[in-house]
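Look over both lines:
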Amino acid sequence: MTELTRHLGQFIADLSPNRLPEEAVRVAKMGFIDCIGTMIAGRKEDSVRIMTEVLAPAAGASTLTFGDRKGPAPEVAWINGTAAHALDYDDVGLRGHPSTVLVPAILAEAEHLDASGADMLTAYIAGYETWAELFRRDTGLLHVKGWHPTGLYGAIGAAAACAKLRKLDAEKSAIAIALGASQAGGLMSNFGTMTKPFHAGKAAHAGIMAARLAEAGFTANTDALEHPQGFLHAISPSGTEDRTSAAKAGTEWAILSQGLGIKKYPTCYCTHRAIDCMLDLVNETPVDPAQVRKITVNISDYFATVLRNHTPDTGLAAKFSMEFAMASGIVAKRVGLRELTDEFVQRPDIQALMSKVEIVTTTEYDPQMSGAALADSVTVQLSDGRIIAGAPVKRATGHATRPLTEQQLYDKFADCLDVGSSEISPETLFKRLSDLQSLTARDITSHAHS
């Protein structure tokens, strides 16, 4: 049996800024930019307010949601991770949301340590590659069993990132990973509530605590991932996990082959291909909502399982509703932050259109995109009998193979800062994050010259 946990510990200890491919650094930087934008956009959400009130963080070195308040890194990471995922607008990859866990953990701990931007980017890549090593070892879909991958893989990825940030040796890095594994969690049954973003925040908090405890001499078993009663077997949907093959971390860069998908829409990623299809359709052929008889959406059965809310009446629930996404696409010709409000979701025309959506599923999956159909498509049947079909979409706009332009990335970032009433101008903060490797964590969060 491969010593996977120990291998990852050695990989983390050996990783250095001068070993990183330029493209890996670019992707990591994009992860910071997008996550910090969504963190600021989400900071007014009730989930963040309640978390802040209950945790009541004492004074500390780390900045809470890029505002004026500071607190201890573990609590700040917990709250910031929740804020970053609260709107479900953060990036996607590795069957989860890597940056919404890694960035809050790294940023909070880096402020505490006064770490450099170069060290933050190295920590991000350590966390990403560790997450990817776990992701590739089971072809089963964790969502089907009820697991939220972001909460599971995220706790271990954040532990790896914080171990790198703290410059732990191989043994203690492996122990940090094992501690992260014992804190992994998150259930699909809580999607569409405040608890989904809580999973991301808790994973960020777990990563900081895992690295700190390991550094202080706390013990854990350094086969916690691959042991027959370890992490990989415990979470495997069908018990077919790979616990024995040689690790690829350190010899292959998953961040280059997998990348990040930047969300164009603030809804579950399982809706994005169909939204692209619907928006293309209505842009080419205007559709009168009153004339719609039926909307048919073709997606995988896996996507349909994730999109559990068929008659949402809140903005939060609507994020996991294909019915809402299609109705918003026709009525508003967009699916953005302005549409994800209780008031918009409850509009009679939206509710009426949602009842006309039929979801047709397939089990023919795309071999390159876990759980997805080969393509998603939408057809609209009108009351006069006409049927309008959109061109099937294989990859959503913002996917690593269809990336947003620099301008689109900035526009999303600026929109997020506007929604979050940022004290720092988007131009200033975007420039800082674009120059991350030459700054420190405290430079990034400073409000000077904003």
